[in-house]
Amino acid sequence: MNISIVEQKEGFVRLQVDVEKDNYQEAYKKELKKVAQGANIKGFRAGKAPVGMIEKMFGEGVRLEAINHLVGDLVDGFIKEKEFKVIGWAIPEESNTEEMTKDDMTLYFKLALYPSEYDFNFDDKTFTKYEVTITDEEVATRLEEMQKANADLQETDTVVADAIVGGDIAEIEGDTRKEGGILKENVTIYPQFMKDEEEQKKFIDAGKGSVVVFNPYKAFEGNAAELTSLLGIEKDHVEELKDKEFSFQIETIRHMVPAELDQKFFDTVFGEDQVHNEEEAKTKLKEFMQSSENGNAEYKFTQDFMEYVKEEKAPKLQLADDLIVEWYTDNLKRNDEEEKAEKVDKEALISSLKREMYVRELANREELKVSDEDIKGFAYEMIRSQFAQMGWHNPDHEIVAKYAEQQLSDSNFAYSIEMNILEQKVGKAMLDKVKLETKQVNAEELHEILNPKQEEETATAEEEK
Predict the structure, then answer these.
(1) Do residues 227 and 216 lie in contact, with contact meaning Cβ atoms separated by under 8 Å?
(2) Does the pTM of the predicted model rise above 0.70?
(3) Which long-range CB contacts under 8 A does 396-405 form with residues at least 24 apart?
């Protein structure tokens, strides 16, 4: 057999393999003998059927298998010898099917290669480096939020804006309960969720044992879900409530009282015996916020750098796009994912692949690696951050580790974490290798920069109100 390169360019190689009958005949006969020894043919003892009969029955399949094995080994060896970095595997051309019916044949294989040329010159771009200042007002606001997140539900004598009010609700006619009207006991109502301000005010400052007369339909702007739950009626009867008034006999009033700045609170959110008074709490919190916002600023730089890579650098990589798509869809089909194979977005696939190749090559150039410990640590901190957003700043280590391990059992999640870490490491390394302009911002301004769409949507929603 003979193998040679018949076409080569950046990202692509085409191989030609010339095979003569003598090249595979010995392997074919040897494999045929094995098949005969294991064959169980009716009328013959196991393994005793004539080789000629076995050849007639199974010969062509055995011949093709022998050829595929020999040619596959030859191609793999050639790839290693030439040190080709192949994406996927060698793709046989369609003409091979007909060629392999002949005794002597010429086969062709296509290789999609990783790029050999990368543009790592960043002189054409100036990036913004954000330096974040944490103000005392921001620290005080965050501390108040933490107090609210650790609030206790307490009984109170009068209704306040965020109160949870319990009692009996009844339909009235004039000043008395309507006979046969709607009546529901042990109802819970939340004045803060009432849409109509006038109806909401009727509850504010009302005391235990008092009776509030209001219009539920108006209070909740005819919301069927709210009214059916509150009054225990069918949805079809909601519109009948438009002009009806109800009395609410207040039995209980509870509301969330923010946690006191005491040792119990400090130990809960900062860890046992780490903070002892409000001043220490604010100092510790400011350190935490500064570290967090510095991380956000680095993340923003990495985000900008990766967008630059995606738009300006990665597209320059030369790949055999169609061949890669062919390999990718073939791989999906081999794994019984026919539906996914039919829906492959070629442009998105190639764009994503080029970006990943560029980032990984840049990481190699900077000698950056992602370890298993990096991945576990990132997942751990991600879970811990999620707990912190819910007001739990000092969760038990074992609980966080358990949740992180569960998340990492998903291979797609683990891969996304690995790429995220790699991009962050590359971004951090590039801070010293690109042109920068520094911009001073506070935390709120940085968040607006990081989430422009979210801010715009919020503004639009406020305008619509």
Answers:
(1) yes
(2) no
(3) 404/376, 404/379, 404/380, 405/379
What top-level class would CATH report for the domain 278-450? mainly alpha
CA distances from 45 to 34, 180, 275 (A): 15, 93, 86
Task: Tell me what pLDDT residue 156 has.
Answer: 93
Give the torsion through C-alpha atoms of 154, 156, 158, 162, to 10 deg: -10
| Residue 345 CB-density burial (10 A; 0-12 exposed, 13-18 middle, 19+ buried) | exposed
> What's the CATH fold of domain 152-257?
Chitinase A; domain 3 (3.10.50)
Residue with tokens 């509030």: 212
Domain definitions of the chain by residue range: 2-112, 152-257, 278-450
Q: Could you report the per-residue pLDDT of 138-191, keeping only the tens digit for each?
A: 999 999 999 998 999 899 999 998 999 999 999 999 889 999 999 999 999 999
B/e letters for 129-157, b = 16+ CB within 10 Å, e = fewer, are ebebebeeebbeebbeebbebbeeeeeee
CB-based contacts of 432: which residues, under 8 Å, 6+ apart? none
Task: Name residue 96's amino acid.
Answer: N
Confidence of residue 45 (pLDDT cuts 50, 70, 90): low
Q: Which residue has the tokens 């002949």?
A: 102
The HSE-up count of residue 189 (CA atoms within 13 Å, CB side) is: 34
What does DSSP say about strands 126-133 and 435-442: parallel, antiparallel, or unpaired? parallel
d(CA 133, CA 46): 84
CA–CA gap between residue 440 and residue 185 (Å, rounded):
58
CA 52 centroid distance within chain: 60
CATH code at 2-112: 3.30.70.1050
Q: Is residue 39's pLDDT more than 80?
A: no
**How far is Cα 14 from Cα 5, in angstroms, rounded to an integer?**
6
CA distances from 421 to 376, 404, 424 (A): 11, 15, 5
